[in-house]
Amino acid sequence: MNKKLFWLFTLLFVTAGTFADAQQPKKVPRIGFLSAGAGPRNKDIRVTATDPRLEGFRQGLRELRYVEGQNIALEIRWGEGKTDHLSQLAAELVRLKMDVIVTDGDRATRAAKQATTTIPIVMGSDADPVESGLVASLARPGGNITGLTNLLSGLSGKRLEVLKEAIAGISRVGVIWNPESPPSAAGFKEAQIAAKALGLQLQSLEMRGPDDFEGAFQAAAKGRAGALTVLSDAVMFSHRTRILEVAAKYKLPTMHTQSLWVETGGLMSYGTYFPDLFRRAATYMDKILKGAKPADLPVEQPMKFELVINLKTAKALGLTISPNVLARADKVIK
Q1: What is the C-alpha separation between 61 and 194, in angstroms, rounded?
Q2: I need a surface site. Which of 57, 102, 155, 180 has the fewest CB within 10 A?
Q3: What does 174-190 look like in DSSP terms, one character per residue?
Q4: How far apart (Å, rounded) are the C-alpha atoms in residues 191 and 159?
Q5: Is 250 strand, coil or helix?
Q6: Contact 208, 235 (CB under 8 A)
Q7: Domains and CATH numbers, the chain
Q8: Beta strands at 30-35 and 331-333: parallel, antiparallel or unpaired
C-alpha cells in the first residue's frame, strides 16, 4: 500500500510540475529597429504609408511565423538624420534590453555599436562595413555585428552609365555627395573613375546638410550640368522632398541610389532593392534568437537590384528617355 501511495504522489508531483511549466508565460523576444532616416510620417517626405524597409523586415518576420504582439515585440526608433539623436536612441534600446537590434544605415549601426558590445546587431543595410570598421571581414565578421551590405557606393559607375544612355547628349554630370559620409565619399571616388571611361565630365557638389541644398543646385546650373547623380546619405534621404523641389526649380534631372527618391519625384534610380535586404535581415534575427552568434554569421551582399524611372518627371523636364533603357526598367512611374 505504501508503495502504491509513493508512486501516486510521484505521479501527482510530476503532473503538477508539468502543468506549472505549461502555465509559465514564454519570454517574448524584444527586437529594436533603429533607422538613421526619417519615419514614414515625417512631414518633410510626404509619406503616410509604412516605410518600405520596415515593411520588408515585417514581411520577413511573417514568413518566419513571427506575429507582433504575440511571439515578437518591436521597438522602432527613427533618427531623423540627426547623429546625436541617433546615439540617444541606440542607448535607449540598450536600456530597454533588446534581444537583437536591427539597424538601417551605417550611422545607425555605428551608434548601436557604440551603445553595446553584447547585444547582437543585425545590419539591414550598410554600404561598406569592412571599410568602416564595423566588422572584421564579410566571411567572419567577429564581435556582435553581422547582416547585409547594400553596395550603395559600389554602383556609382553603373548609375553614370545608365544616365548617359537614358538621356541623349549628356556630357557633364554633377555629383551631389557628402564628404563627411564615408560611403558617399567612396561613391564619389568610384564615379570619378567611371566618368573617365564613359567620357563624362564631373562637377563636384558637396552637400552636408539642408543649408547646402540651394547652393549646390545653383552651382550645378551655373556649371551647365546636364544631369545630377545624388549619392544619398541619411541626411539627404531624410530631406529628399526638399532636395527634389530644388532640383525641379532648376530643371535638373536626377539619378538616385534607391527607388524611394523616384517615387518622391526624382527622375530615375538604380540600386539595391532595399525591402529585400530587410526581409533577409529577419532571417539573421531568427538565427540569433535560436542561438547563433553574430561573429559566426557571414555578412551577405545584395541579390536583387532595380531600375526605376519616373516618366511624369521626365515629361515635366521635357526629356525623352531612351527606349532601350525604358525596356530594361523594373518599374516605370507614369
Answers
A1: 39
A2: 180
A3: EEEE-TTSHHHHHHHHH
A4: 9
A5: coil
A6: yes
A7: 30-150+273-304 (3.40.50.2300), 153-272+307-333 (3.40.50.2300)
A8: unpaired
DSSP 8-state secondary structure symbol assigned to residue 68: B
- What letter does residue 134 receive in the DSSP assignment? S
- Where would I find the beta strands (DSSP E) of the chain? 30-35, 73-78, 100-104, 121-126, 145-149, 172-177, 201-206, 227-230, 254-256, 268-272, 305-310, 331-333
- Residue-wise pLDDT for 34-91, tens only, equals 998 777 654 444 443 468 899 999 999 999 999 999 999 999 999 887 777 899 999 9
Of residues 64, 57, 61, 65, the one with CA closest to residue 34 = 57
What is the C-alpha separation between 315 and 334, in angstroms, rounded? Answer: 10
Q: Are strands 145-149 and 121-126 parallel, antiparallel or unpaired?
A: parallel
Q: Which amino acid is at 269?
A: S
| Distance from C-alpha of 186 to C-alpha of 68, rounded to nearest angstrom | 38
CA distance 74 to 167: 44
Quick one: cell of 296?
559566426
Q: Are 128 and 138 in contact (CB under 8 A)?
A: no
Each residue of 99-115: pLDDT tens digit?
999 999 888 999 999 99
- Amino acid in the structure at residue 272: T
- Distance, in Å, from the CA atom of 130 to the CA atom of 301, rounded to the nearest integer, reads 12
Largest CA distance in the chain: 104
What's the pLDDT tens digit per position in 130-154?
988 999 999 999 999 999 998 776 7
| Amino acid identity, position 80 | E
Tally the residues of the chain.
334
129: Cβ contacts below 8 Å, ≥ 6 apart: 106, 109, 123, 135, 138, 141, 145, 147, 149, 299
